[in-house]
Amino acid sequence: MNPFVTIKDIDQAAQAITQKIKISPQVALVLGSGLGGLADEVIDPVIISYADIPNWPVSTIHGHAGRLVIGSLAGVPVMVMQGRAHYYEGYNMDHVTLPIRVMQHMKIGTIILTNAAGAINPDYEPGDVMVLNDHIGLIGMAGLNPLRGPNLDEFGERFPDMSQVYDRELIKQSHEIATKSNINLHQGVYVCLSGPSFESPADLRFLRGIGADAVGMSTVPEAIVARHGRTRVLAYSGISNKANLDGNTETTHEEVLAAGSLIVPKLTTLIMGVLKSLSA
Length: 280
Ligand code: HPA
Prior knowledge:
Layout: H1 7-18, E1 27-31, E2 43-49, E3 67-73, E4 76-82, H2 93-96, H3 98-105, E5 110-119, E6 129-136, H4 138-141, H5 168-180, E7 185-192, H6 201-209, E8 214-216, H7 220-228, E9 232-242, H8 253-258, H9 260-279
Parallel strand pairs: 1-4, 1-5, 5-9, 6-7, 7-8
Antiparallel strand pairs: 2-3, 3-4, 5-8, 6-9
Helix pairs in contact: 1-3, 5-9
The structure holds hypoxanthine.
């Protein structure tokens, strides 16, 4: 058995989806922990459970509904992933990122990634939103790059550039929408760790030292695969908790989910605004 995802695996999954829908999604959204509520805004939704898509990684985590919602948002045909799979659930990196390959195979040109993250930057508060202007691919540097294995030449080259992963124009638009809507939007660097344990105080001091503003367990592998295939990427972190650099407070999955109710309305405004500008 091939241990790596192949074009056949990708094609099978894409076909299972396209057989059930009449539209061609142009933008894909990946909704992270506690952030699935935005999928409720989709008009004329076709809902497909991840379990019904061959080869699709199924999320086992509370707060991840595990379904695709395909329809229209702000006039744009979209495919929304309500929940995602993570490396810590036991999937390989190329399985974690198979949905991104399927989106590329379906000719989706823009992917908007969202995640719940802990704040390393002391100016960030739970409920805030950060737009990513760069990332630190710490787990990739340690060997868990999602592009490891045979290069899928039909998507991109062996050694893809990562000098500007997050689309400058979409970042600029995000700031304009935030200003108009009175949203305090931070811009910063996200670092992805494998999880599932949260960080120790010494981990967090290290991460602050290397320039991270927010920490989480997703998004970077997806962004790397997206850019390998030259897909436009925009990503937001919903700040769910302050990182405990002093070791005096605990971090829980419950607080991560609870912050979602503050974050979802802001993300909805930002994403709807970006989609409107894409449809114009
Ligand atoms: N650390 C890592 N991942 C997270 C956190 C955190 O503090 N909060 C939400 N996801």
